[in-house]
Amino acid sequence: MIQNQTFDQERALYGLKDTLVKNCRFDGPADGESALKEARNIQAEGCYMNLRYPFWHVDGARISDTLFTENCRAALWYDNNVNIEESSLFGIKALRECQNITLKNCKVNSTEFAWKSQNLTIENVTIEESEYPFFEIREAKISGLKMKGKYSFQYNENIQITNSELDTKDAFWHTKNVKVKNSLIKGEYLGWYSENLTLENCRIIGSQPFCYCKNLVLKNCTMENCDLAFEKSTLQAEIKGKIDSVKNPLSGKIIADCIGLLIQEKEICDNSKTEIICRKKNCA
How confident is the model at residue 281 (pLDDT cuts 50, 70, 90)? Predict the structure, then answer.
């Protein structure tokens, strides 16, 4: 065990193995980088990370009750088998090109968070502000996420999201096989160019959602302030309540209580390929 020490030199604990690092500070005038690079089977508990690139090429780590400050940029890159709990990640590009990563009960404020990673488990995480979070991730299970940001979940594949609150524009662009359940999704231009995007029991808020989608499925969802929806999309949508407007869907079926404005331009789409059912005659 290494306890109650301060490190500021370059590669201070390079290649560390089978060790608990407890209540240590990585900070100081030497301003060294890559403190725990190439570490194996370590624990970091109650630490203060204020220097760059601390956990690169790490295989096997448990990190808890640890603060990664704004100065701790690119904290975890190229890592495998890392569990992070009860920690705060506040540096830019906090997680990238990692595999088998679990985050539980963490706070994140990191632009370009979690890029190009796979096999992620995210539970009860708050993202206070981010741009392009979760870019090009594969194979992830996410629950209890509360996120505020822009351009999230782009180019994702095989993702499950449940019981989450996502305040984000341009989310789910170019995704494949993404399922969202029991969640709030707020933001403009949701889901464009996606394939096999499914939302169930979700509250959807924002302008021009779900355009240019392939095999979009909406089950038992509500749509608020959603105008010009479904342009050039193939879909099966069952909506509770009103859709403000629908524009030129390519094919499929749309069921809603009512649609404020239906735009079907014959020169753009074949109206016979989309079945539209409104439960109510009037859209008051």
Answer: confident
